[in-house]
Structures are given as C-alpha cells and as structure tokens.
Amino acid sequence: xxxxxxxxxxxxxxxxxxxxxxxxxxxxxxxxxxxxxxxxxxxxxxxxxxxxxxxxxxxxxxxxxxxxxxxxxxxxxxxxxxxxxxxxxxxxxxx
Length: 95
Prior knowledge:
95 residues, 62% helix
C-alpha cells in the first residue's frame, strides 16, 4: 500500500472522458497481433529448420518424407473414423 500510494486520483480509469483513448486500445491490439505473428513464425522456423537440414541427405530425406506421409495417413484415418466418413466397425469373435 505504501508503494502504490494513497492518492485517489491515481486509480485505473475505464474508457470515457477521463480514461485511456480507444486508439490506445487498438494500438495494443495491433501489438498483440504482431507478437502472436512473431512467436508463431519463430516456432515454425525452429521446427522446420532441422527438417530442412535432414532433407539435404537423400537417405534421411526418404525417412523424413515416409514418416511425414505415414503420419498424415494415420491422422486422416483416425479423423475420418471419428467423423463417421468411413464405415469402420468392430467385429467381436466370441469363442
């Protein structure tokens, strides 16, 4: 309480005549959008840079492309079974 002070005129104000301007709000929204774009592009760069290096060697390129293709195939099969596009059903054998 001592650090903040006891002045009543330093309270946070809402939008209005005495509060921050709407332009400040949209400027902050723009900065958050740029931050999200920067972080996501940095993550994509960090993920795809090692894959790019692996694609330079033909043997590792075949392995990487096989893993990526197999991953897409498995995910597509799971999603199509979850959505109901395919007629997948279990057949239980009772012995």
